Amino acid sequence: MKKIIKTNNAPAPIGPYNQAVLSGNMLFVSGQIAINPETGKLETDDLASETKLVMENLKAILAEAGMNFENVIKTSIFISDMNNFNKINEVYGTYFDTETAPARETVEVANLPKFVNVEISAIAVKSSF
């Protein structure tokens, strides 16, 4: 059984998908880009601000499911230019404790939705351990 997670505090999907799907105790969060949920507009002028908005969108979806970044076990980061990795990683790192950070991969891709610089997805789990 799956439960669809939706919040107005993150951008609405721009295609046939949902912000996140909860299945059992696992949450699968769709890739987030720097769309401001209040205005519906892209904010890509500054890479650090763009990455922060992506992370804040992830945070809002996690919160809607009753979770936070401590619940995240895996992320996937897609970037349009690997030369931007350090700037993106610097912002990304502020959302996680180094000792308990999730597994992840970072991949440079030829293009991203709406020609953004970064997209991040996540898998989170509610656990009792």
TrEMBL record:
What the entry lists under Pfam families is as follows: Ribonuc_L-PSP
State the superkingdom.
Answer: Bacteria
Quote the InterPro entries the UniProt record gives: RidA, RutC-like_sf, YjgF/YER057c/UK114
Instruction: Give the similarity note.
Output: Belongs to the RutC family.
Q: What is this protein called?
A: RidA family protein
Q: Which organism is it from?
A: Autumnicola musiva
